[in-house]
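Form 12-C: Joint structure prediction
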Amino acid sequence: MPVRVGVNGFGTIGKRVADAVARQPDLKLVGVAKTRPSFEARRAVDRGYPLFVAGAGDPGKFTSVGLPVAGRLQDLLGQVDVMVDATPEEVGRENRALYQSAGVRAVFQGGEEPDVAEASFNALANYEACRGKRSLRVVSCNTTGIARAVAVVEPRWGVDRWEVTLVRRAADPGESKRGPVDGIVPTLEIPSHHGPDARTIFPALSIATVAVVVPTTLMHVHVNHVRLHRAPSGTAELVAAFRASPRFHVFAPWEGVEGTPQVMEFARDRAGREGGLPPDMMENILWERGISVSDRDAYFFQAIHQESVVVPENVDAIRAMFELADGPTSIATTDRALGIARTAPASEVPPVRTRAASP
Amino acid sequence: MPVRVGVNGFGTIGKRVADAVARQPDLKLVGVAKTRPSFEARRAVDRGYPLFVAGAGDPGKFTSVGLPVAGRLQDLLGQVDVMVDATPEEVGRENRALYQSAGVRAVFQGGEEPDVAEASFNALANYEACRGKRSLRVVSCNTTGIARAVAVVEPRWGVDRWEVTLVRRAADPGESKRGPVDGIVPTLEIPSHHGPDARTIFPALSIATVAVVVPTTLMHVHVNHVRLHRAPSGTAELVAAFRASPRFHVFAPWEGVEGTPQVMEFARDRAGREGGLPPDMMENILWERGISVSDRDAYFFQAIHQESVVVPENVDAIRAMFELADGPTSIATTDRALGIARTAPASEVPPVRTRAASP
Amino acid sequence: MPVRVGVNGFGTIGKRVADAVARQPDLKLVGVAKTRPSFEARRAVDRGYPLFVAGAGDPGKFTSVGLPVAGRLQDLLGQVDVMVDATPEEVGRENRALYQSAGVRAVFQGGEEPDVAEASFNALANYEACRGKRSLRVVSCNTTGIARAVAVVEPRWGVDRWEVTLVRRAADPGESKRGPVDGIVPTLEIPSHHGPDARTIFPALSIATVAVVVPTTLMHVHVNHVRLHRAPSGTAELVAAFRASPRFHVFAPWEGVEGTPQVMEFARDRAGREGGLPPDMMENILWERGISVSDRDAYFFQAIHQESVVVPENVDAIRAMFELADGPTSIATTDRALGIARTAPASEVPPVRTRAASP
Amino acid sequence: MPVRVGVNGFGTIGKRVADAVARQPDLKLVGVAKTRPSFEARRAVDRGYPLFVAGAGDPGKFTSVGLPVAGRLQDLLGQVDVMVDATPEEVGRENRALYQSAGVRAVFQGGEEPDVAEASFNALANYEACRGKRSLRVVSCNTTGIARAVAVVEPRWGVDRWEVTLVRRAADPGESKRGPVDGIVPTLEIPSHHGPDARTIFPALSIATVAVVVPTTLMHVHVNHVRLHRAPSGTAELVAAFRASPRFHVFAPWEGVEGTPQVMEFARDRAGREGGLPPDMMENILWERGISVSDRDAYFFQAIHQESVVVPENVDAIRAMFELADGPTSIATTDRALGIARTAPASEVPPVRTRAASP
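Section 2 - Result
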């Protein structure tokens, strides 16, 4: 019997998580909750997702524009095993009591403080540690990107120090009101919150993050400098490790992908394939030419699609909570259902050494 | 037996036309031609489109990166009934002789001068006049948007004068090199070329177009002022006519679509539905609140997705050339195959009067 | 004895008006008022402008960072004959009673509703009608641009109909928070408020305005289509009239000014000349090649620098209120003091006919 | 007798250097050279700079639009002691022989390869080493920003390792054609060329630079991570050192400067002061809150105004070549003439230790 899932909030993250849940063989999307009618509410109806009215929302406003309503959030809570909370930042915390009193488990997003849930979660990094929890917090898009990269690098070469400059997108593509239009805004707090957030997943990681905001909507770009504990044989070893990992996509030089405009063009091109892959980029994006190793110093760029990178993680978080599968199985199941499963052979990939070897 | 189609050029337009052709019941995509390997070439292969090498391209460059090559453009020409030329501006003209000498019909794009083909084409506007032609030119994205709107308005109320300010996007989303980054660049030539281009479709139309370029990638926006020959009963009559027309999408106020960011968000949301609709907006986009009629003066905004609006027109152009169907049937077939067929009832739509009534 | 002027609000408009007032021979800048310390408050001090604390502002916050305070807004009111209110939209209305009870005249900005003052003002258009008023409202940047153009065109050829598409900048260059970053947002209200606002200056003008917002910070651009009452002899006649008018700058083709990036580059280049001209563009900007006349239909672009175009108008508004000079003399005095006085000969300029001749 | 200076190229850098030279007490601007008439050529004439025609330029094209010509570049060469070459990248190299055969010294810009001149130059860093040279190359804007910061930090605490992520502006404010409009483009070459370029000034510096390009026009922003050789007492020590250095400007928290939009707003506000300061930001810009020291790890942002930061360096390069003054005197003279001299007291500034103490 599939785990019954509700999604509260049907914006950038919520609608993607709902779609992703609906594709999984072992999960059932029971419904989604929204406070106001909009083109996105219509989308829920068009996709056949029962639509519930959240918060102080007025069901009459939905029905008067032809959107059928299946009930209130409270009704949805009575029909599900777990809620994915994709409401705006800090609303999730307010909803926590609601979920608890309904006896429903909950997945929160990275906009909430870590203590909103029993643990912070990333599928590649700490799936096992999150098994059986009653509440999890999927870390934010940027932290997810970092955690995945650490999960590839740390077990193989160890990490003495991880430095990231985050070049952050100012607004999402569907937003009209946020800026800047022209200008760079440094996040003056040093380190930015992303470093401490990464340590909710890797408590022992020595990491510093610094961020700037720039006027783009497409993706974040991370500039990573990692001081490794052991030197790889060369750049090719790192490239191979990233290429072999689930949820990583490494562009080759001949592909002509100069920057995030082409990455998202690739995502749009890919859309529709394999059972309806959305025009998203759920993987960490690297450039083969943008990976460089010199002795124990590794540098690499990675682009992170802020809208979708956490989507497969939300699915895996549910599986971890209900212990439906081990980590690698869950990741493989999720990615196959979403159409982003790796097909490349894993030969030449450097083996994972015991983590104990790193400091 | 389906008409056999080749596509020369596999960039923004070519790849979309190839996908659209591949979905049609009465057309067969034989192959696509490209000069250089790139992520887009890989996409052709991933979709199962035979890949031919165009121009001075080197097949070895494709095969060395794992992209199988089906032959040269010349080989493709021997296997098709018609080529859609989606090469960069002014290359189409150079290719014309090639297609002619191969005895193959050709569809050109609006970047070419009108005399590249026997006639300029828009499905809603002059399908019948283009039946049986050996070459057609699908007018550019902006002119397509204008021609469609004229095709809705002119037969119903007549047009004394049509004025358009075109607010044009500076670059496509997948481009890195074109600007401006911050600034507005007027197209100082008055009128812009779009007005004369619209008259290749509507020779008697009194139209003036003026254009500016602005730093966005998503869509063009047209500001239309139409002096009608006969006054509609009110704004609702115009709204109904647009709503009932194929290839028009009118957003209602409650949908919360403020501008082109939300229009393209809608397109991305819609993607994947109905057999793999791409994240495109092939319809003219209007806002119900952005349509205003006062006596014989009508004002309305329309947003035009420069990447995809000509795609269904390319399909219909092929049908017109080979007389596979009449216009309304071709449009309905195309749109159903692409997932953009109108489902709304056509009641309340003002009837088309005889065109003779307009000056 | 110079008229004593205070400026309330020291942001984009206020700081420019303060500088402009300080340069006039017949006006005296007594002080400026601000609610919070900032780099702009420091600028006031650096320029030697006495700094008063407005509203609920805390003087201690200024002095603790080394900014000397001359008193509260109330104190400033006791020392001036007139206040220029450059506070944020709708705050001006709240301040009106304050100015009245202090027996001080007031100049408001176009962000306020027209009834905030006895009359709306534009120096080229209705200076004489505003003489002796106790309160005036300088119309907004866009309406100022329109009013100036009407003031040049209407007396010479008459105006049957004026249509403007306003392509508006999304944010000012010094703003970080407003968007959109990528996208066009139509102002769905048709006509936009600019047309009615222009009629506060030209009550009989037949005008329609439609607006879109685009992601740029530099300038607005207006696309004008004017149906004239009498046909000019040709485009050259219009060009000459604009060139001869104060507060108009017409770029010649050889200058290589493609769009607003080069216009503001020109402004920056010009800065510092003639006694400290700021890097602003207080004139309406036209392109000779972007003016086109065909019989009675005139088309032209004009770019409007939203930050500074109203600055000379604020100065003239004060002179009109206190009847310090007639309109042409005030305009000439202001422009000479600001460094934007026209030096070109006025030959070839079409004469102004009696306004009665136009409908 | 002042050193006679010519400027070849009158674009972004050339026009600023010409203005700066014209203000110096010990230099004389003899003329500027340009290939084509434009609004910038008119500016030269308006400022009274004799205008010479460079390269294959046609003097008739200047005179026909009313721009008087003083001769050809060759004529200018006969009247000067030194040329500042501000021509587009790689043209400077071609001009080198021209200057040499005319017996004229030359200052080149950072767009040229280092071997174009006898030495690469930065005033704070290696003025003394450049005295008496016959040709110098002022390093690029980004390298100038880095070199200045190293010149402050290295003598005080020593540098074990300097890491910079450069977030680069895509185009200058006056450009229309360069993009991207929306997107981030990593400079895939790692390290970027800036690190090696900095070593033309500091040969022993251990530095790595990585760059991305973002859609802004205002400034570059550098994210610096410096591993110091000796720990400062705390962040305040670093702040004080930067604040005391010429050509550094550190914003305090109360000033409300969030990012580069406000920095350039500050620059525009400041313009006109002190004898005509242009709306430029010739200093390295830091934020007090954006400087952080933890033991020997220092992090700080700095914003670099690509258009003007090298301007005072060009002036000092001339003085070094002609041994008109020692470094500190030249810097002080330049900055006073340009209106950017530091006035803050230098108390609390950590002393410079002997450089020998650092590795």
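Section 3 - Comments
The first strand of chain A starts at residue 3 and ends at 8. DSSP finds 13 helices and 16 strands in chain A.
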